[in-house]
Amino acid sequence: MLRKILMATAILLIIASTAQAEKVLRLTLQLPAAHHLGKNVQAFADEVAAKTGGEIKLEIYPSAQLYKDSEVPQAVASGAVEMGVASVSQFAGTIPAVDLFYVPFLFRSQEALNKAVAKGSPVRQPLDDAILATGARVLWWQAYGGSVILSKDTPVVVPDDLKGKKVRVFSKTLGELINAAGGAPTSISGSEQFLAYQRGTVDVGLTGVTAVKSRKLFQVMDHLTATQSMVDIEFIVIINEKVWQGLTEDQQAILDAAARKVEKELREQMMTLETEAFEFVKDKINVVQLTDEQLAQWQQLSTPVVEAFVKNAGPLGQQVVDAARAIK
User: Fold this and answer.
1) Domains and CATH numbers, the chain
2) Strand pairing report for 232-240 and 136-151
């Protein structure tokens, strides 16, 4: 009898140990696994698994299998899923100031942008803090790249080309730009772009060039206008705060270190990734480069957008705009 009790106890200990060794964090990703954000998340998962000796395992659900981009903030904050990847603009409903990165031409160089999105910077930190207050902790920011304009029958080269057109946007601030140009902004999730373009739900779309490649948007659109980083598209990887607090200090340190590592790697790769994407699509879609005069028209149009952003985003918006402008 004693032998059976000891064996049963040993089995229970093994089961308990195994359960502890297989702490699973589900992560919802709206992009395909092959996209650079998907690869970045997988690199994080591999790093965490290796450093924790298998104690923590990430299950990645790509291509919006669990939640659409717009649903991710609430899903993670509520604990419906442990982790998620979403465009930072998806928090604009509760934190309008996060739309800072979609204020056209606010960041005039890659160096200025990198300083703004650096962990702990006077631009990023207030936004991370505001997001944490919703119940979701930012682990790292993912560089998505600059925006491009997609269109069907004719290319978009100047603001007047948007008059009367329905335009896919991914933030309220970009919607202000489209309104100023005489277009009709329509919010459409990234994962729904292909069908929206295919069905003619919108005439024009704003997105990143890497998405044109990974989502095969060149199959349903005819022209791509390179806007010379009119706006910078940023995604964030978030974790439910209660889940985070349930981790040990060592586990938190491992996740934080892994996040910093993959964030740095992706930021350094971004220029190469965009160059490769442009090279890939150049014989599949008509690529238009703006002249200095055409670009100047877009920049002039964007001036009142900054004022509208600050008015909508309040004191926090003014704070991050001032911090962005102070970057040298």
Assistant:
1) 22-326 (3.40.190.170)
2) antiparallel
